[in-house]
Amino acid sequence: MVYRREHWQISDNCNGMDCKILTAYVRIEGTWIRIGHYGSECKKFEPLDLQQEEKERLDKERMMQLVADFRQVKQENRARLNTIKNELNVSNSFFK
Length: 96
What we know:
This protein is an alpha+beta fold.
C-alpha cells in the first residue's frame, strides 16, 4: 500500500522528493500485521509505535461504546416520554 504523502515530509533521514511512504507488513498465522513504514527510494525503515496505536484503538473502541450507550439511553428516554404522553392523553380524554 502506498500513501500519498512523500516520505521526506515525515522523516528527517530522507531527502528524496520522489520517495513515497510504503507500509511494511508481516504475516503471522495467516494474518497481515502492519509493522512500520518504508521509504520507496531511500530504503529506510521506520517502525510504528505499537503501544500508541493500541492506545488509539482502545480509545476509539471506548468512544464508540460510549456513543452506543448514549444512543440507547436516549432511545429509552424517548420511549418513556411517549408512554407518559400517551397516559396523559388517555386521562385527559377520560375526564372530557
